[in-house]
Structures are given as structure tokens and as C-alpha cells.
């Protein structure tokens, strides 16, 4: 199983599909990540706030997989943007992960009321220069946040990780990011199970036409749109199902029907609005 890789704007490459461990309980993480690695996943998305970096690290250490075959992302939490806190935060994350460097380090939320996300991103630039992370990016950034970061640091993030699924496509951010060479990572790619994507005709019909599950059709839509995804599950059969999405291709008409599902009124959002997280 070869998972396609996408090139980032800094020349590094990222496996387009991975495994996200939000809400995987700390005491289940080593087992779940070990299973994912055994099945063939090589890209793991965690965060300091998930409280499970140690479990991710234990699974990596036990796997015997060469470090350069893995792509590990973690994130800087909201209360650590200021002063030299990002330096301390990444050191703690690396210690828990048992790694010398991560592949991607993200500012988790802009927390605009605190107005220190530009400083936080500037610190990430230093962390990359110090070799503690290979690539740097942001998460949950709206267009005005992206504009400020690029204008004030002179550095373009490699990715913006945002809530994105067929019912909530954030086209303004996707268009801006694409025009500036920023890759989009879709979090909640399956709508976190809170939005009934799987019963929606455009998705159910595409799934039936290709003899795949609705979840696989949705993941295929993300991949063909050029987005990076890391669906979460703690069940081995779903981990397998979510990885088994490279043997079929949605047609242009099927993609267009799924594109048409977002009324662009924000009603499909399942997570918090970035301006409200501070
Ligand atoms: P998701 O859309 O991947 O949904 C996960 C849920 O979908 C699981 O609980 C599971 O019940 C269900 N599911 C998974 N595979 C399925 C399948 N094949 N069939 C049916 N149901 C299935 O949502 P998520 O976990 O929130 O997002 C994925 C990852 O994105 C997270 O694990 C995390 O790494 C990241 N994330 C980032 C942020 C952020 O603020 N940056 C926020 C949320 C999530």
C-alpha cells in the first residue's frame, strides 16, 4: 500500500492520508497507533492538548519503523503563544513523543482576542531553523489571520488545518490558501459523526456506484480535492476501511454533486468558530 505524498511549499513532502488521534484516550493511544502503523498508516496527527503524545511516542518506539518513513504532527496549545513559551512547549511535546524533531508543528488556534498568533508563528519559524520541526503551519486560521502572518513574518505556513467536510467547505480559505501555496488539511473530514453525511444522496449514490462505503466516498472526495486527511477511529476495521481509498476514483459529476452540498451559510460547521476560541 503506497499512500500518495504531496509536496509542501518548503520542499518537504507529506503523506496525503494519515491517522488523527483527537479524543483517543491516553490509555488506548499506544494500542490504536500501533494498530494504525501495522495496517500501513505512516502519518499521525496529534496535539499537546489531546493529552496522548506519550502514547503516540510509545507506539512509534515499539514499531521499529525508520524515523524518515514517518510523518508526525503536533500542535502548540492556545495558552503558550507568548514570549518563549513555544520553545518550552515543543520541548515538552518532543520529550513525550520520544523524538528529536517533529515533521510538522502547528499553531493550533489563532485565539484572536489575545492577538499573539503572529508572535507564535514567528517563534515557529525559529523552531524550524533550530531543527526541532521540519515544517511549520497553522490551524483554524481565517483569511485575515493568514494575511497577517504572511505579511508580518514574511513566511508562508506550509499548511492550514481547518474544519472541512462536504457540508462545510470553507471555500474562501481554500481559495486563498491555494493561491498562496498553502496546503489544506481537513479536520473532521467525516463531519465527526455529528453531521449526517453518510445518508446524503450525493454521497450515498457515489458510494454505491463504486461499491465502497459512504465514509470511503467522502475521504476520496477530500483526496481528489487535494486536501490532506487523517480520519479518526479506534476500531481496526475502520482504520483499514479509511486507508482503503486508493482503488477507485470519483467521477467529475460525483465530485460536483458533493461540492454542491455546502450551502455556504455556515450551517454545516460542527466545531467552534475560530474567533470564539480564545
Ligand atoms: P472525523 O470526521 O475523522 O470523525 C471521527 C469519527 O468518525 C470517529 O469518532 C468515528 O466514530 C467516525 N468514523 C471514523 N471512520 C469511520 C468510518 N469508516 N465509518 C463510519 N464512521 C467512521 O473527526 P475528527 O476525529 O474530529 O477529525 C480527524 C482528526 O482531525 C482528529 O483526530 C485530529 O487529529 C484532527 N482535528 C483537529 C482539530 C483542530 O482544531 N486542528 C480539531 C478536530 C480534529
Overview of the structural elements:
- The protein has 278 residues and is an alpha/beta fold.
- The chain has a domain of 193 residues: TIM Barrel, CATH 3.20.20.100.
- It is built from ten helices and ten strands.
- The strands form two sheets. An eight-stranded parallel sheet has the order 3-4-5-6-7-8-9-10. The protein has a two-stranded antiparallel sheet with strand order 1-2.
- Helix 4 packs across helix 5 and helix 7 packs across helix 8.
- The longest helix is centred in the N-terminal third of the chain and has 14 residues.
- Nicotinamide-adenine-dinucleotide (NAD) binds next to helix 9.
Comma- or semicolon-separated keywords:
10 strands, 8-stranded parallel sheet, 278 residues, alpha/beta, binds nicotinamide-adenine-dinucleotide, TIM Barrel
What can be said about this structure in brief?
This protein starts with a strand and ends in a 19-residue tail after the last helix. It contains ten helices and ten strands. The chain is an alpha/beta fold and 278 residues long.
Amino acid at each position: 500500500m503506497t499512500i500518495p505524498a504531496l509536496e509542501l511549499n518548503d520542499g518537504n513532502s507529506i503523506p496525503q492520508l494519515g491517522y488523527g488521534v483527537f479524543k483517543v484516550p491516553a490509555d488506548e493511544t499506544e494500542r490504536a497507533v500501533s494498530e494504525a502503523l501495522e495496517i500501513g498508516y505512516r502519518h499521525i496527527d496529534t496535539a499537546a492538548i489531546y493529552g496522548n503524545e506519550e502514547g503516540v511516542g510509545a507506539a512509534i518506539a515499539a514499531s521499529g519503523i525508520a524515523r524518515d518513513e514517518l510523518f508526525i504532527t503536533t500542535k502548540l496549545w492556545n495558552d503558550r503563544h507568548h514570549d518563549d513559551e513555544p520553545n518550552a512547549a515543543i520541548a515538552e511535546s518532543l520529550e513525550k513523543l520520544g523524538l528529536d524533531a517533529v515533521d510538522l508543528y502547528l499553531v493550533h488556534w489563532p485565539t484572536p482576542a489575545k492577538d499573539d498568533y503572529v508572535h507564535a508563528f514567528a517563534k515557529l519559524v525559529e523552531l524550524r531553523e533550530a531543527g526541532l520541526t521540519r515544517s511549520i503551519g497553522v490551524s483554524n486560521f481565517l483569511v485575515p489571520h493568514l494575511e497577517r502572518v504572511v505579511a508580518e513574518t514574511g513566511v508562508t505556513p506550509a499548511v492550514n488545518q481547518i474544519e472541512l467536510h462536504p457540508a462545510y467547505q470553507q471555500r474562501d480559505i481554500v481559495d486563498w490558501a491555494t493561491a498562496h501555496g498553502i496546503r489544506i488539511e481537513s479536520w473532521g473530514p467525516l463531519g465527526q459523526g455529528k453531521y449526517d453525511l453518510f445518508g446524503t444522496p450525493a454521497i450515498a449514490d457515489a458510494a454505491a456506484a463504486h461499491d465502497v462505503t459512504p465514509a470511503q466516498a467522502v475521504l476520496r472526495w477530500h483526496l481528489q480535492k487535494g486536501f490532506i486527511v487523517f480520519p479518526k477511529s479506534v476500531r481496526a476495521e475502520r482504520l483499514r476501511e479509511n486507508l482503503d481509498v486508493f482503488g477507485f476514483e470519483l467521477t467529475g459529476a460525483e465530485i460536483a454533486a458533493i461540492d454542491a452540498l455546502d450551502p455556504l451559510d455556515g450551517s454545516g460547521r460542527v466545531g467552534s468558530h475560530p474567533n470564539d476560541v480564545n
